[in-house]
Amino acid sequence: MYVEEIKLKRGNKQYRCTLIRESYRQAGKVLHRTVCNISKLPTQVIEQIRVSLRSTEGAGSSPGPLIVEHQREYGASYALLDLARQLGLDRLIYSRKEAWREDALALIVGRVVYQGSKLALTNVYADTALWELCGHAADERPDVDRHAYAVMDRLMERQDAIQKALAGQRLRDGCLIYYDLTSSYFEGAYEDSDLVAFGYNRDLKKGHEQIAIGLLTDAQGCPVAVEVFRGNTNDQSTVLAQAKRVSEQYGVKDVIFAGDRGMLTPKRIAEVSALGFKTLTALTHPQIRDLLERKVIQLDLFDERQPLEVHDPEQNTLRYLLCKNPNTAADERRTRQELIAQTRRALEKLAASRKKRTEIELAAQVGAVLGKWRMAKFFSWRIEKGGLLFEVDQALVQAEEAMDGCYVIRTDVSAKLWSAPQTVANYRGLAQVERAFRNLKTVALELRPVYHHKDDRIRAHVFLCMLAYYLQWHALQRLQPLFDADGIGQDRRWAWPIILERLKSIRTQTCRLGATVFPNVIARPDPEQQRILDLLQVRL
Question: Where are the domains of the chain?
Fold first, then answer.
């Protein structure tokens, strides 16, 4: 074994690394391999290793095998902490470098890399360099109260200032912003919470209390602000306050406010418009039928290939973009047919039953069946001589099928600013908020289960998860070339969890070679790992 110094040139930059190398024979050839990278060791230690290896070789003896005594995860924690500092997230949290700010970074990066509870994050101190990189001793277990819960309280105090700073970076006068609301269900008892309550559960988890979460993003889907509402809060009731926040607190004017059809109702649109905002949303089915009845639009105008633009004759500033999605049409038709078939079978079972019951009891059972599958409008029924008679209104079914896959985008943004295709593309951008919710709730950051019972801690936890998603969002933006060059189907290689695992396998190690101990030896990235680090603009 011997010490070798290697010089690498990449572009105009020159890099040096110091390696312990080993020579060996294979098939009669002398080959060389790297044992470990000791570039990070002090110069005097490297020189001591060099002399030690030379002396043992001269004496004809060997220092013995290289022993790895301890290793910890390093690459993912270091890369994401470095990225956070590149983005200025540390300075957004607090302008001065204080211990609590570094702990806050550890919580944010820990949410991306490890998820789980705050207690679990403090308990992995022996297996990750995360806490050490944030100023803790390598063998010191962080205290969950001082280094996690107290930090969350400080972070909560800074939420408004941090979100205002994010808005200053991401939002400009006349910009497009997206707003949406989701819910996250809870398990357990929350008697002392004013936030946790029963409400409409978007995860279809019946019997669970929940909170509602409102998220504001910019046009690219980068999160700007988050707010936690009581679990039974109606979507549209939160719109005006969010619009006022953008206008009054963040000082952004002439905003184009985009939300889904259930959020931007006519009343909410009027309120937002009073602030000087434009709006972008879609029409509900009743609103589309109203346009059909007024002969503003016709069903044969909906086209799968390109959107058709129509102006409202009663409001010339309103533009309607008529679109049709064939995949959605097929899904809606199939779903309706299945629900009608299930309803018919249940009604046939009631009609064939010989069980004695009053007409009122039979009517109640019919109502329960129609309510279960929500297909009442397609069925006409009556009770004669104690028996049930029913039929499907095929004309109404066909009328509904004619609208399958049809949707109308509504905006008061002028055609000079947005063309018809651009308007449709901007509305579809709402999917970015849905993607953010998926990452927050399940895919990457696992917002739930929530282990906190105090309302302020629940709010702090959600805010912490939003900041973690902000960091992940920027990482994914930089890694986009990796995804663009990826395969498809079974040949696909890259996804966020795989990237994290690749970075996590870059480890810091304590090695021993004879009597010489090499602390903090960082594994050398392989070409794949180096490509990820280069895209993230991180240098180990």
Answer: 2-63, 159-259+430-477, 327-402
Residue 523 DSSP symbol? P
The Cα–Cα gap between 3 and 46 comes to 8
Cα 67 to its chain centre, rounded Å, is 41
Are 444 and 496 in contact, with CB atoms under 8 Å apart? yes
Structure tokens at 68: 């790895």
Return the C-alpha torsion angle 82, 87, 92, 98, nearest 10.
20
Per-residue pLDDT tens listing for the chain (540 residues): 888 888 877 777 777 888 888 888 888 888 888 888 888 777 777 877 887 777 665 555 566 677 888 899 999 999 999 999 999 999 999 999 999 999 999 999 999 999 889 999 999 999 999 999 999 998 899 999 999 999 999 999 999 999 999 999 999 999 999 999 988 888 888 888 899 999 988 777 778 899 999 999 999 999 999 999 999 999 899 999 999 999 999 999 999 999 999 899 999 999 999 999 999 999 998 999 999 999 999 998 998 888 999 998 888 889 999 999 999 999 999 999 999 999 999 999 999 998 888 999 999 999 999 999 999 999 999 998 888 999 999 999 998 999 999 999 999 999 999 999 999 999 999 988 888 888 887 767 778 888 888 999 999 999 999 999 999 999 999 999 999 999 999 999 999 999 999 999 999 998 887 777 778 888 889 999 999 999 999 998
The gap between the terminal CA atoms of the chain, to the nearest Å, is 25
Query: Token pair for residue 308?
Result: 């058709």
- Whether the CB-CB separation of 178 and 259 falls below 8 Å is answered with yes
| Neighbouring residues of 463: CB distance < 8 A, sequence distance ≥ 6 | 155, 156, 159, 226
Alpha-carbon distance of 253 to 187, in angstroms, equals 41
Q: How far apart are CA 99 and CA 147, in angstroms?
A: 9
DSSP summary character for residue 116: S
Q: Helices (DSSP H) in 300-414: which residue ranges?
A: 326-352, 359-373, 394-402
| Cα 240 to Cα 268, 277, 455, 481, 530, distances in angstroms | 7, 11, 23, 39, 47
Strands, E assignment, 254-307? 256-258, 278-282
Other beta carbons within 10 Å of 141: 14
Kindly report the pTM of this predicted structure. Answer: 0.83
